[in-house]
Structure to design on (433 residues):
């Protein structure tokens, strides 16, 4: 993973959903080992911005540029997107889910167990996803972040349904990711306590 | 890339086997429709023999359509499709993997039970081989053309019926050439007529292998964004 020189810049970005302008004139840049926390009221466009960054939503105006990454791959292919939907299949077991994402997202040989242990799911490895609680499902979809190393993490309300211990675990993982030169953009209502994380309040416009 | 392709195919096969809903249901539907036919038409064995190839094909088309709407719908609803589009595998190959999985779990089992159902309809002995061969060639086209319809209706609630209406017209060439091959054999025409039908059927199938992934991926992109 060559993330040392990674930098993401967003210039004059606008987002339109269903004929309504969600935000416009949005500009910010983010370097390696930096985190950006998106805040703002419901409907301010936090999720839309994350989806635009992941390449899941068309950019009608403005541009998103990543420099220092793999030029052969799109931003989406170098990023993890953890959204409201958990992308889990009830009939697959916990470990099968991780193994699938590892081989599908073209991973390097880091064991599925490492990812499960990082999120405290190791003891549930053989359980079908259907029997997991909401918090455990959320942790399983977050385990993808560890199972497949990618430099950019796009997290949409990652702490939903997590208990205090799991939130602490997630924050520790996020700090570790930043420590390795990664980049995080997270929408959250909770103060994660990431030191030096920049804030972008949507609805207000500019990064502080 | 190959690894990602195989991983997706293996996942789809595993899900199909575990859920049991897809292929098994299509085979059962096929069986029931064919079993009902002699009851509706009456026990005229000659008449049954004459309509058998066409009826088998029509029932097979409908059975294949039955499972089509879930091709992308489940992945769309739980967010998997977002992540599938963020892998290194091009969306076209994602469609190939899913359509191939659909064929292996639906099309192939339908072909396998066809000889048994042929007996129910008094299918002439000499028509078995050409009919099965035609079905083996034609059923992949059903999955790959169907993928376009399934991808177009992926965001539509209860889109199954709409997908069927969109896709059925494109199944017509498969039906015509598929029954043509079997009818040529049972009708005592020269082998050449049957052969031509098979060749044209293969042409339809091969073009669907190209058009299905391209059209399906384009439709998915339009629906995702």
């Amino acid at each position: 993973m060559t993330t040392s020189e990674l930098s993401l810049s967003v210039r004059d970005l606008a987002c339109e959903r269903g004929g309504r302008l969600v935000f416009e004139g949005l500009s910010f840049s983010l370097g390696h080992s930096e985190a950006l926390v998106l805040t703002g009221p419901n409907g301010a466009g936090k999720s839309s911005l994350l989806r635009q960054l992941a390449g899941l939503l068309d950019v009608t105006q403005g541009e998103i540029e990543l420099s220092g990454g793999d030029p052969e791959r799109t931003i989406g292919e170098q990023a993890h997107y953890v959204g409201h939907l958990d992308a889990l299949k009830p009939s697959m077991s916990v470990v099968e889910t991780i193994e699938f994402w590892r081989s599908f997202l073209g991973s390097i040989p880091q064991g599925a167990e490492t990812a499960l242990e990082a999120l405290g799911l190791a003891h549930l490895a053989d359980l079908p996803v259907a029997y997991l609680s909401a918090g455990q499902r959320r942790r399983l979809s977050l385990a993808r972040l560890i199972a497949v190393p990618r430099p950019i993490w796009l997290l949409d309300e990652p702490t939903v349904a997590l208990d205090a211990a799991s939130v602490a675990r997630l924050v520790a993982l996020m700090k570790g990711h930043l420590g390795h030169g990664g980049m995080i953009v997270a929408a959250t209502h909770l103060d994660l306590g990431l030191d030096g994380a920049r804030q972008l309040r949507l609805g207000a416009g500019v990064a502080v | 890339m190959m690894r990602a392709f195989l991983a997706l195919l293996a996942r789809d096969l595993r899900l199909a086997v575990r859920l049991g809903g897809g292929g098994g249901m299509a085979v059962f539907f096929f069986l029931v429709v064919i079993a009902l036919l002699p009851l509706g038409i009456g026990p005229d064995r000659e008449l049954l023999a004459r309509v058998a190839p066409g009826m088998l094909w029509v029932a097979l088309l409908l059975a294949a359509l039955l499972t089509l709407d879930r091709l992308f719908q489940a992945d769309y609803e739980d967010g998997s499709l977002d992540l599938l589009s963020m892998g290194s595998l091009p969306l076209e190959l994602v469609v190939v993997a899913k359509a191939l999985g659909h064929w292996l779990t639906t099309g192939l089992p339908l072909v396998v039970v066809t000889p048994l159902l042929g007996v129910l309809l008094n299918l002439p002995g000499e028509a078995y081989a050409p009919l099965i061969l035609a079905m083996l060639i034609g059923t992949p086209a059903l999955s790959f053309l169907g993928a376009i319809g399934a991808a177009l209706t992926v965001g539509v609630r209860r889109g199954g019926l709409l997908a069927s209406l969109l896709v059925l017209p494109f199944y017509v060439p498969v039906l015509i050439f598929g029954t043509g091959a079997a009818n040529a054999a049972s009708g005592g025409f020269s082998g050449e007529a049957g052969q031509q039908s098979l060749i044209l059927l293969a042409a339809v199938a091969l073009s669907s292998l190209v058009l299905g992934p391209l059209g399906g991926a384009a439709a998915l992109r339009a629906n995702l964004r």
The two ends of chain A are 29 Å apart (CA to CA). The beta strands of chain A are 7-17, 20-31, 35-39, 61-67, 79-82, 152-156, 183-187, 198-201. The first helix of chain A runs from residue 46 to 54. Chain A has a mean pLDDT of 87.
